[in-house]
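Input/output pair, single chain:
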Amino acid sequence: MSQHQPKIFIFTGSGISAESGLTTFRGSDGLWNNHSIDDVCNEHTWRQNYALVHDFYNDLRQTLAETEPNQAHYSIAELQQRYGSAVQLVTQNVDDLLERAGATDVLHLHGNLSELRCSDCDHEWDIGYTLVDLNDARHLQCPDCGHDSQCVRPNIVFFGGPAPYYQTMYRWLGEASHPQSLFIVSGTQGNVVPIDSFMAQVDGRKILNNLEPSPYIDEHNYSKSFYEPATQAWPQIVDIVEEHVAQHW
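Output:
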């Protein structure tokens, strides 16, 4: 028997935000919002594409400002409000739709669109939906160290760069491993973060929600699979969670 208390571990990907109108991270053509990922999301090329990178994330930030959470976001926030610290929320998404639905303490594995980071001193700061103006010197200067040598970047984990919050996710997974825990994977193909391999290693009941089967996810690891839009699946998932908690906790 695990020494940990049972948890509700929720892992989400871009599929839960797609119904709000946000483009999923990567299409089958290797593009993200019609841009090559190597141009706008690469640790080794972002400085040489400095203007393009900021223009790209400005566009995403502006789109996000005009986007509303959907039922999936509200259902997840509702579970957290009901069960408090027993709920662990991890997302691959860089949007803030979970927070705007009422969720807190969301672990953003790949960064946050509403934040900037200094590549010189690693200071992070929130800008909300403000657009970065490359003609305004104040937008190009770190408020902490004062450097302005093209050190200001979106606080996004670029391909080829460090992803420090993965260690936190691994710790949370270990803490959640318990026969009476619930693990919910929703809106991810499992090709960026190999979440399915982690699900195979933890104890607990597992639930999957995706639009369709993925070659990177073995549905046999899950007691229940919902192949349908997240807004349709999540009210049913909430019912399963409530029934499980009432019976086993």
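The longest helix spans residues 230-248. The radius of gyration is 19 Å.
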